[in-house]
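A protein record pairs a chain with a discrete description of its three-dimensional fold. The following entry can be read in just this way.
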Amino acid sequence: MNLKKILGLAGLLLGVTLIGGVGALYVNASDHDDGETEIKGRNLNLTDLFVFREQDQNANAAEEDLILIMNTNPRSLANQQYYFSTRARYEFKVSRVTNNDATPTGVPDVVLRFNFGQPNANGQQTIQLTAIKDGVTTVANQTLRTTSIKANPNVAQVSLNGSTLSVFAGLREDPFFFDVEQFFRVRAGALGIAPAVGFRDPNTAVDFAKGYNVNAIAVRVPIRFLQGSTSATTFDVWETVSVPGKGNKFNQVERLARPAVNEGLIVTNDFLNALNSVGPDFEAAALAGQQPAANIAGPIVAEAKQTLLAVGNNDARANALLGAFLPDVMRIDTTGPSGYANALNASGSPIRGRLIEDDVVDITLSVLTNGAITSDNVSYEGTPGNPAQGHDPLVTSFPYLAPAN
């Protein structure tokens, strides 16, 4: 999850990185593998963020609740238990928005922080939930535990600041769907370094996430909890992972908001690492011309724009794409039905969160190619008769993600 912040949607379709300056090409897409190092393994790697009104997923649910889902630890194999890091902080961050067209501040009003203990003999970890709301820190006074693989969901009801939140953490099926392999070929062809090809038809397209699991954190949170003393109905959401640094300081190593975004637009690894360590407030400051953010971000944005131009966008369209998707946050207007790109603000940025089965890849392909490409021909349910596609049905109640493979 390195650059995915600076470019939101743009990162998915246009992920291209030239390596070593000698014409080798590495094309990366989605956020299922980026940023692994010897000190940052997969359980510190964010894959997806989902934010939606619960009633839009479940007609029988209460109207006043939002669902936040954070997925981590990509490529978790079936029938194997994986764990959350015991040293990391996994955080949802939420800021209140005055109106849908407002520029994101990237400064959280509410933080939901999750810390995990060592696994027991049953494969369960303890969970410590901390809420930081308008500067006031509250630690949940309850013993929470993760759900071990193949067990029924262990959903805890947590009392915080006069509200009740529901919490689930554990392995679930990875819900993301995308023909990544063919995407690599399509991108290489578009750049003229390989034969020009299109996406495979639905009968032969391959969903690279099929059969894999993720470690998921899901929270049902009342909108009134996020509002505090305000009447806000629109919120910006993003997620982060931080690990201990020197002294009592935690260093952020991951950040994610909009779906299927990737560091692919950025060539320089140091740029990627730098962006992963800051929040969307950094991008807001850069946009406003504030130093040192503007000076630091200048060459990063220039590099991203160059990639946008290289894949066929003109200068005006490249600037518009950049302007629509940074600062990178997942905005959700709770007064209308959830769904990625169900509605856009004046800048062309999505404002209705993301449902689990939203086809964010197809949406992104269409936007960034101006309708020239409309689908990778992969869907959540898959194509009948094609064994390389298809995910298990979502469960009908919280936490909604399908059980682990």
Notes: DSSP finds ten helices and 15 strands in the chain. The chain has one domain: 4-368.
